[in-house]
Amino acid sequence: MSRRMRHRRARRLGVATLTGAIVALALFGGTAGSAPRATTEVRLVTLPIANALPQQLGIRKGFFAQQGIELKTTTLQSGNDVVLALANNNGDIGYLGFVPMYIAVTSGISMTLVAASEVEGTTAADNWQNILVKGSSSIRTPRDLAGKTIAVNALKGVGEVMIKAAMEKLGVRPNAYRLTALPFPQMRSALNNGQVDAIWTPEPFLSQAINIDGARSVMAPGPVLGRYWPIGGYTARQAWRSANPALAQRFRNAMNRSLVYAQGHPAEIRAMLPAGTQNVRLPIWSPLVDRSKLQKLAEYTRKYDVITRMPNMRQLVPNSIASGLVLQGTVQAQRVLLRNEGRVVTRLNVGPYTFVVTDNSRTQNFMLKGPGVNRQTSVRGRGRSTWTLNLRRGTYRYWSSARPGVKKSFRVS
In this model, does residue 131 exceed pLDDT 50? Predict the structure, then answer.
């Protein structure tokens, strides 16, 4: 190799290494051992659902303490309640859905995202937030919900927008059914006593309704709209973030570490759940946001008159929040696949991605190798593995170790 070629290769590697370092700093800040500043209290307003558990796990693992943060948490019943708490200065950062964020910023309450959180699944079978009916109900399909009453945790919130958009996509008009507001903990009782015909509920209430009450899923609104649909995150008033930029960054560093750790250690999340609910369907936690899906969700929110104008997405989702896609890897009896929204991945841009690999085989596994990446699932094990990776320029290959001669690839540029 000539001196010029070696110089060019070193320069490319240097750029890739620098890019990886920048992404790592954007996601997680400094190293875990870096000395934190004096401890600062952050008032966190959150919701009573399993999706919010990574921040509690992050407290236990010391991620927030390492950033010099002591979290004081308050639990409310809906995203709209969280918005009101933040607007009235009864909290610094709130965990809530993107729809209440859109409502806030278009109503004069200036909000900005501080950290990402989770996305939904790919089907009703693997999703953690579905529309359920009683086991004895005659309702079998989304179309059967016409003329029925569906409980959501709040009107003009995430549930209303998601249900209306998904139902209309399946051919059911938004005025063909009725939505009513009930707190999540009250939904099972309301369904069982006939107060409502269906409930839109997340974990752990979803598994409790299915496993204890015999309820059935009839639709998962998120997966109808798209695989790995974004739902919520951690937001703050713009004024608070402007007054505390370093603290907001430290919170994001700790929260991102908590999300990635929780995704890689589901048993520790399950151990935090109430007895009898440890086998719930967990969400996919990722420090990345899919800005195209957030834009589409904003358009749905405007379409169904939950907001009167489109939100300023650049202000709501600042550049400090890393943008990236969630990719779907699957391991089947005879093949492995990597897809984005159902299409086989052949080319990607440089940057961070979350890989969700579902391994349904005890004889195959998923191996991924390329610049800076060497990951694999167990051959004998089954289940879901999630990796948040920074992809550099070059060719990445994936295959099963049981069939090393059959490899697929994609280019990153």
Answer: yes
Q: pLDDT digits over 139-180, tens only?
A: 999 999 999 999 999 898 889 999 999 999 999 999 999 999
Question: Which residue range forms the structural domain that includes residue 153?
Answer: 129-225
Whether 7 maps to a domain, the answer reads no
Q: Which residues contact 322 (CB under 8 A, 6 or more apart)?
A: 23, 26, 27, 116, 287, 288, 289, 351, 352
Q: Which residue type occupies 402?
A: A
Task: Answer yes or no: do 105 and 162 share one domain.
Answer: no
252 domain residue, yes or no: yes
Residues 6 or more apart whose CB falls under 8 angstroms from that of 15 comprise: none
% of the chain surpassing 70 pLDDT: 91
**Contact (CB, 8 A) for 258 and 56:** no
Structure tokens at 362: 């005890």
Q: Do the domain assignments include residue 80?
A: yes
Q: 276 — alpha (psi -120 to 50), left (phi > 0) or beta?
A: left
In this prediction the pTM is 0.84
218 and 164 both lie in a single domain: yes
- Looking at the fold, whether 91 and 237 belong to one and the same domain comes out as yes
Model pLDDT for residues 357-375, shown as the tens digit of each residue: 988 788 889 999 999 999 9
Residue 48 to residue 56: CA distance in whole angstroms? 12
